[in-house]
Amino acid sequence: MPRWLTAALLERREETATASTLVLDVPGWPGHLPGQHVDVRLTAEDGYSTQRSYSLAAAPDGDRLELTVQRVPDGEVSPYLTGEFSVGDLVEVRGPVGGWFVWRPDEQKEPVLLVAGGSGIVPLMAMVRVRAAAGSRVPFRLVASVRGPADRLYGAELDRGSPGLDTTWIHTRTAPPGVVRAPGRLTAQDLADWGWPADFEPTVYVCGPTGFVETAAGLLVALGHHPARIRTERFGPSGG
């Protein structure tokens, strides 16, 4: 198990009304792969400590890490990280964690389909950014499900686009003007229209709440994607 390291907040970026990206300086950080996550531990003055896991949001950059944290109402950790946590403040981090839900640009050459539900886009964004940093020509398609336009994490960056990356937003509650698709949950037709055909044998990464991940994986299998090519990462209520 990796050891705990001390991390200092260098910068905060507000992504949405309820989500912030935290740029941390972590001396001694060993590096990471896109798709991995870290444990973050807070310790109070009385010695009480609690920890949560957060996905890494960006490509490796020396001792710097980026985490995007979605505030959970009545949570223990996320309200502090997205609110009181200030530049120069310290937390402890441990990682990187995870080895299955990763994309390795030097090993995987088949097309990639990324399917995100809400803040499940965070580890997938790390893959998008690593692909760009590596100058990879592997074609990527991202299908991201959000409640409405205001909930798009990294919206401006993704909408600017990059060669070989196609992004589609699926709005489940409210859609912006001019969008033909009516608001609603992700469907098999969405994945057929905006994903890769199964016979292209893409590697698929699905991340989001447990119910979303199970539904999306089932739709992909029904469309002919082999279960062994579908990698999933899910999260559920944890107290935030």
From TrEMBL:
Membrane-crossing segments per the record: none
GO function terms (MF aspect): 2 iron, 2 sulfur cluster binding; oxidoreductase activity
Every FAD-binding FR-type domain range: 2-103
Keywords: 2Fe-2S, Iron, Iron-sulfur, Metal-binding
Cofactor(s) the protein needs: FAD
InterPro entries for this protein: Cbr1-like_FAD-bd_dom, FAD-bd_FR_type, Flavoprot_Pyr_Nucl_cyt_Rdtase, FNR_nucleotide-bd, MRET, OxRdtase_FAD/NAD-bd, Riboflavin_synthase-like_b-brl
CDD domains per the UniProt record, alphabetical: FNR_iron_sulfur_binding_3 (cd06217)
Keyword Signal tagged: no
Transferase in keyword set: no
Cross-referenced PROSITE patterns: FAD_FR
One Pfam family named in its UniProt record: NAD_binding_1
Gene3D superfamilies with a match to the protein in the record: Nucleotide-binding domain of ferredoxin-NADP reductase (FNR) module (3.40.50.80), Translation factors (2.40.30.10)
Record's protein name: Ferredoxin-NADP reductase
Organism of derivation: Actinacidiphila guanduensis
Upper lineage: Bacteria, Bacillati, Actinomycetota, Actinomycetes, Kitasatosporales
